[in-house]
Specification:
- The structure is a single chain.
- The longest helix is centred in the first third of the chain and has 24 residues, at 33-56.
- It contains 15 helices and no strands.
- Helix 7 (100-118) packs antiparallel against helix 8 and helix 14 (219-238) runs antiparallel to helix 15 (243-263).
- It is mainly α.
Length: 264
């Protein structure tokens, strides 16, 4: 059970669905073996990133997240490292059989996650690395079906992942500061970091109707936004001071957004 918690299966499942969304967006929903394998590849890339991140963060997590499996002993570091390398290796191998573009993209995503965990996590650029990697999951699906519309959710992934990563950095200020991490909240202060996170959420709120206005997506997309995503985004802006709640709420917003893109 501990190793399952290390990979954060819900996040990996969201990545799996994001890959499918990138393949389906604006098109008929068809699940063939290539799309499914691409989704599994995305799942494994996410599992790799989460595992390596937990391994690199063991000492910080003793302060910030003492219930993480590698801290409590539910998972062993050497075993987790083996699994992380396995996840990443299998993902790269699977992507090779999906084509040159998916292979290059998955390789880049693996490198992004590796550099993030080893270095960029300790800088303000870490949030951007996570957001870009999340957006690449849609592009992966788009490569499978030659779907240029996958760029749209890839862009919106930036607008939801960056504020969520900022909020997570605020939650982790205590441990991060002790280990010399230069996250955005540590450099600019908690209050300014909250304002930046709110700006991205306001951008998400204002820009998300554009695909409907431009005639790219249908009325179903707009209705899911109006009745699902918009109230949640507004609530996240209002309740952003409640950091754990706001972080989890943004994850729900991601799922609602996926629904909007898939049925739109």
């Amino acid at each position: 059970m501990g190793y399952l918690l290390v990979i954060r299966p819900i996040n990996c499942l969201i990545t799996f669905i994001s890959v499918l969304c990138g393949a389906w967006i604006g098109r008929e929903i068809i699940l063939n073996h290539k799309i499914f394998f691409a989704g599994i590849t995305g799942f494994l890339v996410c599992a790799f990133g989460n595992t390596i991140n937990d391994i690199m963060d063991i000492e910080i997590d003793r302060i910030n997240n003492p219930r993480r499996p590698l801290i409590t002993g539910q998972a062993k570091k050497d075993n987790a490292l083996f699994l992380g390398v396995l996840f990443g290796g299998v993902a790269v191998i699977m992507s090779f059989f999906l084509g040159l573009k998916p292979f290059l993209l998955v390789t880049i995503a693996i490198l992004f996650l590796l550099f993030y965990s080893c270095y960029f996590k300790k800088t303000p650029w870490g949030n951007l690395f996570v957001a870009i990697t999340a957006g690449l999951s849609f592009i992966l699906g788009g490569f499978i079906t030659n779907n240029v519309l996958s760029l749209i959710p890839g862009f919106f992934a930036l607008l939801i992942h960056i504020p969520r990563e900022i909020i997570k950095d605020i939650i982790d200020i205590s441990g991060d500061r002790q280990f010399g991490v230069k996250s955005l909240p540590i450099i600019y202060g908690e209050e300014r970091a909250r304002k930046i996170a709110r700006i991205f959420l306001f951008l998400l709120l204002g820009l998300s109707p554009l695909p409907y206005i431009l005639g790219i997506f249908n009325l179903r997309y707009l209705l899911v936004l109006i009745w699902g995503a918009f109230p949640l985004i507004v609530f996240a802006i209002i309740k952003i001071d409640n950091y754990p709640f706001a972080s989890n709420l943004m994850k729900v917003i991601m799922l609602v957004g996926l629904i909007a893109f898939i049925i739109g």
